[in-house]
User: What shape does this take?
Amino acid sequence: MRKPPANAPRPLTIMDVARAADVSKSTVSLVLQGSPLISEQTSARVRKAAARLGYVYNRRAADLRRKSGNAIGVVINDLMNPFFAEVLVGIERKLTAAGYITLMSNTNESADLQEKVLRSMREHHVAGIILCPVLDTPPRLVKQVRSWGIPLLVLVRSLGMGGYDYAGSDNERGTYLATEYLVARGHPRVGFLGGQTGVVFDDRLRGYRQALKKHGLAEDAALIRIAKPSRQGGHDALLDLLKAAPPATAAVCYNDIVALGALAALGERGLIAGRDFSIIGFDGILDTAYSNPPLSTVDIRPGGLGEAAASLLLERLQHPSSGRLSYVAEPSLLLRQST
Amino acid sequence: MRKPPANAPRPLTIMDVARAADVSKSTVSLVLQGSPLISEQTSARVRKAAARLGYVYNRRAADLRRKSGNAIGVVINDLMNPFFAEVLVGIERKLTAAGYITLMSNTNESADLQEKVLRSMREHHVAGIILCPVLDTPPRLVKQVRSWGIPLLVLVRSLGMGGYDYAGSDNERGTYLATEYLVARGHPRVGFLGGQTGVVFDDRLRGYRQALKKHGLAEDAALIRIAKPSRQGGHDALLDLLKAAPPATAAVCYNDIVALGALAALGERGLIAGRDFSIIGFDGILDTAYSNPPLSTVDIRPGGLGEAAASLLLERLQHPSSGRLSYVAEPSLLLRQST
DNA sequence: CTGAAAGCGCTTACAG
DNA sequence: CTGAAAGCGCTTACAG
Assistant: This one.
């Protein structure tokens, strides 16, 4: 099957532009880079010729020669959770605005996949990586990526003792605030719903415990319902919590999707959130504004977190050897009808 | 600030491997490509040397020379809508499994951004593009991208008269089924909520109208509430619909997030979906299984749609000049408590 | 301010 | 089965 010649023109190179503008290819290259070394006249002539011919810059060739690149790898553990989708949108928005391009991958909590995509990104010579690691990622991963010479920003889930750039939120303080609020509203028995493992879980559970302690309330293991951090997990956990005696009348949730699942379980039982039982989520995803009823939550502004993460990494690219960078979102209570 | 030499080793090339294995660099290259031209012995020796040295393949250099690449551009109009997030996850899963890498961008319905990222992807020499175009994208965009020599798959929103690869769903049939179902359940006055423009909107509205007509019901403009295809749009539209007289008792929604917003509005009015008013969504996003109450919807399996889209594009890469490829998801009713 | 030359790290005919 | 050479499309010293 021969292609019609018109459909397969040899792609234009700077040599073609050089000929058309009657200069050398070095000059074209300099013009394309906006170098001040070239006179305004020459520059304009070259630019015009390039436009006329329909020349397309070959970033690959340039990157190879320059040993640089403008692609950033973003690897997310669970994009099905709207929280991460919103974070990703924030990251991508910032990256694109700064002239970078986003190489994205969803690992779905698989360590194997994570390793695979990280390797792939390395081969592609990404300029930097933003990683929200799968659960149980060993802290040495940080050192490994660093040994590759690729700047890394760890997102949300911290890995070991620090020594790396990080963007996340103050999880302990978030659940502390949420719990304290519910206690102050007169709930003596407040449950904790969902989540099972990982630093984020540990911190959020700790904040809950601290608040109970601070307000002189005994902790009751029956009120802490470990469950998958999903809608279904939240749904099932709430149903379990309802069996506790004496009954709980409110619950702090590991995150918003768990809280949404809990809302569904309440509805299933004919209970109305905010009247019969109080629920508070964590993250501040968009969905919470129009759930039934609208969900109170600990807002850490997912989109802002994503943008901050991207900014930090870009900052790191500018200053490869400055001190550790970090962003910790300050949680704030977003009170709606579910409490 | 001098870097310690150990931290900045000159990156290894096939030349280093060649020297270590005592062969020429062509041989190394062939081994790396798994060529059958090389003896098992030599091949093993080279592979061992590469591993020992910690050699990393430079895909960029290879791609430049080979004029190929394994990056696919995916541009989505609204990643904040879980439907598209789920589609993206499906696409990425398939692409990664096939050894490709995903260059992703969210245009947020901005034509300017769309143009910018498309240009950027072109410079990066992506092997193909999956595009869910922003509203009002002119059909000539298809021709333009094709003139770049980059295989394009149009996602969800068709553009003009065809002549391109496409993955989407049978929107007209979807709303037809939904409307018919509600009518059969004894709702003489069924509303249509949300959406404002675009082919998808037109088709879904048409399906609704067809079903009314088919079942001898008059169409009432007061029951069709145009609104932004968002939770808030659905919320506001339902509140409007409630004012209609005689009252509607059920509504087909443009998509699931509109339906979720409608559910919130119902709750706000003290109404219970499925008892006082029936709501049916469209898409089949995960959220619907645990909304309050769980939402009936027209399921087009977003994840499956994403995978199909990726498969089609990969197929196209194998066969550049075969006939037009397309996938149209067959909608099925997923009945839950909201109806 | 501009041009000739070398080189980024690969692949691919072409000999042998 | 293996090696020497040219080339992918750029950038970057280096002369002039």
